[in-house]
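Much of what follows relies on a compact textual record of a protein's fold. An example makes this concrete, so a full record is given next.
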Amino acid sequence: MIAKFPPVSEQLDLIKRGTDEIIPIEDLEKKLESSFKKGIPLNIKLGADPSKPDLHLGHTVVLRKLRQFQDLEHNAILIIGDFTGMIGDPSGKSKTRPSLSLQETRDYGQSYFEQASKVIDGSKARIVYNSEWLGKMNFEDVIKLASKYTVARMLERDDFETRYKNGEPISMHELLYPLAQAMDSVAIKSDVELGGTDQKFNLLVGRDIQREFGQEPQVILTLPILPGTDGIEKMSKSLDNYISITEPPNEIYGKTLSIPDTLIYPYFELLTNFPKQELDEIHQQLENRRVNPRDLKRKLARTIIEMYYSIETAYEAESNFDKIFIKKEAPDEIEEVTISDTNSKTIISVLLIVGAATSKSEARRLVEQGGVTYSGKRIDDPNFNITIKNGDVLKVGKRKFFRLKLN
């Protein structure tokens, strides 16, 4: 069946939105024109890192671009790097990255695909594991592949160059990673490969290796690295500046409203489906200060929650936020925790019982930082004793509430 595509100019407008680089743009135009005339979709490749099964909004930037290609009727091919995961991608790392077992990469890869399907159309995406071809290569094949790229060019990579100059070790297997990823492009005959700006070197190697195997080189399309909620570092769970696509709507709403004003437009551009006209309007509103930035953040928060839950859930989260932070009330739905022992307890032990902390030291830190309120009273003393009453409310941090129930 011959596919029907939108006009090439219309496709380019959507593809260019929010991208950092398209290399080379002329080749992309030629591929789209050929695809349009022949009615044959392009193969759009995205390699998935199986070591990060929990997706946050930063991960969705490149996934959303893959979905846009799907909406344009092209083939989305998600490659789970179960084989390359055993090498470990050294991109941006200052030291050798720990490798995973094949079973770990498979398990993480399945979780990745299930979560990614909240963004892409999983029913239409093709998912493959690169062990299907990399696992079949023998040592002779690896030697021939390695002969197609020089050490000098490999050391042009920023992280390798830095480590080499600093006298830090670079393992030989790390040098093979870009070549292995390039073989993924050869195996699926990739027309376009997507990735973050930190993947640019790997994607360029893919073009070179495809050429060595007699294929038309892929176009590479890089996407910006999404800043975290702090507005400084890239979004990361380890930096606790992330918004997960699977966390409770109340958390998503509160975290979105906490972002600095400078991130409002980039988040709208990279994380939502707002058309260009509306994006331009938002940009003008921010430039001219015609709208309170908080109102735009509320709109952004509702939009993100609606994308991953529903519009009803979005407005419910907004209502809960207003109750807690504007009206200073507790939300309607609070997690209930049953406590069997009614004797007096320290606030530390209560925090451990309800699961608000995983250790005594963490619980102590929460109290000492002023983040714990019990029955409307802030607790500053980690040794404070409380006599629990049925229905007492424990508040931890800005958005966590627990209603205690006596057994």
User: Anything to note?
Assistant: The longest helix spans residues 172-188. Residues 92-96 have pLDDT under 50 and may be disordered.
